[in-house]
Design brief:
- The complex is a heterodimer of chains A (310) and B (366).
- Chain A has 310 residues and is mainly alpha-helical.
- Chain A folds into two domains: 48 residues, no CATH class; 201 residues, MetI-like (MetI-like fold).
- Chain A contains 14 helices and no strands.
- Chain B has 366 residues and is of the alpha+beta class.
- Chain B has two domains: 226 residues, P-loop containing nucleotide triphosphate hydrolases (Rossmann fold); 119 residues, Beta Barrel (OB fold (Dihydrolipoamide Acetyltransferase, E2P)).
- Classes of the chains: A mainly alpha (310), B alpha+beta (366).
- Chains A and B meet through helix 9 and helix 10 of A and strand 6, helix 2, helix 3, helix 4 and helix 5 of B.
């Protein structure tokens, strides 16, 4: 570049006025109200339907919550008590003292984060290879991945168990984590996301001298955050709630996760004492709830705006 | 800066289909602005993408500076491309978009900053450097895409219809800006367009493609004055040339019954049938049915008048000819006013007659 003079002037183009997030949201929601107008009966029915669905989801959750604050004797009374009286935190105390609750939390955190990280990294990398890199046998590999998605977990459990037990990996973290780290779903989801990106941007980056990893981190991933966040959230929730495999692998608090720990609690008593179990369920839900509230904003952000002119 | 040479370059998308690009041979000089033009699907974008390395070359070679580009990855070719969609990185600001390639090439931070600043100054982007593509108008994005190409100071610019997403007025100003920029930087440029006005006004030379085959490559003037076949003749020029199939007798072609004298050498080579091409401005209006020199003039029933202010175009069907006879287009200056339904007598200008072989469509040259 040897010149620095301005050559020619462009006509002044007017820029679309910048709008705040709130203005945009309001504009998006501000569809002609009259076109939506229906009779009051239909509106009422609509609300009734919504209330029913909310009740269907909320009542069991509410029941878990109040039960966790009830005295042991109040749990089974008829008619059902819809408010704990007297409210007590004994269940929470019992939960944390009678079983090594915090060991289970620690195990859950270790196993969930390790498995989620492995799944996300493997999912992104394999999806990237299967969508944007060219190599022989690419479609065959993808077919195998899709086929893996069709096989239910429970079928592979027996052979996995035999293998892991043979390796002497029962009651170890690697015994739980490694068999869970396969990622057909993530590969499928992220591959479709990568394929939906405008091809010209990928080509532009290649012409701009970006190598494969730079292309992934600087160009492809920034346009794929919403999908990645959704995928990560689903993965974390799944791993956190994973029951069958950790249950088969762990006998005690050295590796058992929270859901497994709660069954230990249930089995200890002979007769199930639901109060501490419900308290444990509530505490097990909290981290996921917080994570979801934190990440949901990211999921709905559109990040490709302005990349290509449609 | 570099020379580019297409040596019988061919691209086949599948074995059974006709090649998308069929044995194109093109020699592009260092610093030249070459425009590839043709109707949609003619292979012009594919040709460009082969040069950039985004499409493989299935036959023949492409040389840049004398080096065969076979097996050279796009990122190693030092070719910058401006896409029709601009293809800006949405997560980066204008400055980051422009700096991306330099960053990849491990250019120092200070030099990168300087080159981006220079490009921004040339393209009047200084105020927009911190904006992301989503906050820019179409014209501004187009300039960022240009900036991203020019900061690299590459061997070759490839431009794939970079103006087709701009509105008409902006397109005209940007057209001259890009042409001026190319002259100033002196970087070899291959520019793809379907717009013949862009082709005629921007390039040093224009290559016309049809169905993957190169028809003609020449300066815009030569393309207009001496088209090698009826396709080039009808593709270049707006409104289009009038092509009339006519028989040759005694060194004259009969155009709708009106004898048009041909060059003697041309008449000698022509068979019994030729296609005569006459551009809209190659006619003049005569006052009476009797043309100059006693020959008859062509009477046209005016069917459509397009007035552009400074001139107007009249589309008419020869009187007495059937409906299957093609329309004749005649350019008139602003002093002559005609309306639909009028009859006008016209005569071809001497020496402005294009003659093509009736069967092959090839130009018959003296």
């Amino acid at each position: 570049m040897s010149t620095s003079t301005v050559i020619g002037t462009l006509d002044d183009e007017s820029l679309p006025p910048e709008r705040t997030r709130r203005q945009r949201r309001r504009a998006a929601h501000n569809v002609e109200p009259s076109s939506h107008h229906r009779g009051p009966v239909w509106t009422a029915l609509g609300y009734v339907g919504m209330v029913l669905v909310v009740l269907l989801v909320a009542v069991p959750l509410f029941w878990i919550l109040i039960t966790s604050f009830k005295d042991r004797g109040d749990i089974y009374v008829r008619p059902a008590q819809w408010w704990p009286s007297p409210a007590t935190s004994d269940n929470y105390h019992e939960l944390t003292t009678r079983i090594p609750f915090f060991d289970y939390v620690r195990n859950s955190v270790i196993i969930t984060s390790a498995t989620a990280v492995a799944k996300i990294v493997l999912g992104v990398l394999s999806a990237y290879a299967l969508s944007l890199l060219r190599f022989p046998g690419r479609s065959v590999v993808f077919l195998v991945v899709i086929a893996a998605l069709m096989v239910p977990n429970q079928i592979t459990v027996i052979s996995n168990y035999a293998l892991v037990a043979q390796l002497g990996w029962r009651n170890t973290f690697q015994g739980i984590i490694i068999p869970l780290a396969g990622v057909a779903f993530g590969t499928f989801l992220m591959r479709n996301q990568f394929l939906s990106l405008p091809g010209e941007i990928i080509e532009a980056a290649r012409l701009d001298g970006a190598g494969p990893m730079k292309l992934l981190w600087r160009v492809v991933m920034p346009m794929s955050w919403p999908t990645l966040v959704a995928f990560s959230l689903i993965t974390v929730v799944n791993e956190w709630n994973e029951y069958l495999w950790p249950y088969l692998m762990s006998d005690d608090e050295t590796t058992a996760t929270l859901p497994v720990g709660l069954t230990f609690l249930q089995n200890n008593d002979g007769v199930t004492n639901w109060g501490p179990v419900m308290a444990g369920t509530i505490l097990a839900m909290l981290p996921i709830l917080v994570l979801f509230l934190f990440l949901q904003r990211q999921m709905i952000k559109g990040l490709t705006a302005g990349a290509v002119k449609s | 800066m570099a020379t580019v040479y297409f040596d019988e370059a061919t691209r086949k998308f599948s074995k059974d289909d006709a090649p998308a690009v069929d044995g194109i041979t093109l020699d592009i000089a260092d610093g030249e602005f070459l425009v590839l033009v043709g109707p949609s699907g003619c292979g012009k974008s594919t040709t460009l993408r082969m040069l950039a390395g985004l499409e493989p070359v299935d036959g023949g070679r492409i040389l840049v500076d004398g080096h065969d580009q076979k097996g050279v990855r796009p990122r190693d070719r030092d070719i910058a491309m401006v896409f029709q969609s601009y293809a800006l990185y949405p997560n980066m600001t204008a400055a980051q978009n422009m700096a991306f390639a330099l960053d990849n090439a491990k250019v120092s931070k200070s030099e990168t900053r300087q080159r981006v600043a220079e490009a921004a100054k040339i393209l009047e982007l200084e105020q927009l450097l911190d904006r992301k593509p989503g906050q820019m108008s179409g014209g501004q994005r187009q300039r960022v895409a240009m900036g991203r190409a020019i900061v690299r100071n590459p061997k070759v610019f490839c431009m794939d219809e970079p103006l087709s997403n701009l509105d008409a007025k902006l397109r005209v100003s940007t057209r001259s800006q890009i042409a001026g920029l190319q002259r100033r930087l002196g970087i070899t440029t291959v520019y793809v367009t379907h717009d013949q006005v862009e082709a005629m006004t921007m390039g040093h030379r224009v290559a016309v493609l049809r169905d993957g085959k190169l028809q003609q490559v020449d300066t815009p003037e030569a393309l207009y004055d001496r088209p090698v076949n009826t396709f080039v003749a009808s593709f270049i020029g707006s409104p289009a040339i009038t092509l009339v199939e006519s028989s040759v007798r005694d060194g004259r072609a009969e155009v709708h019954g009106v004898p048009v004298p041909l060059d003697r050498a041309v008449a000698g080579r022509a068979g019994e049938k030729v296609v005569v091409g006459l551009r809209p401005e190659s006619w003049h209006v005569v006052g009476s049915p009797e043309g100059k020199g006693g020959s008859a003039a062509l009477a046209l029933n005016v069917e459509l008048v397009e007035s552009l202010g400074s001139e107007s175009f009249v589309y008419g069907r020869p009187a007495g000819a059937g409906d299957d006879a093609g329309r004749v287009t005649v350019r008139l200056d602003k002093r002559t006013h005609l309306t639909v339904g009028d009859v006008v007598h016209v005569e071809p200008n001497h020496g402005e007659v294009h003659v093509f072989d009736a069967s092959s469509g090839e130009r018959i040259e003296a």
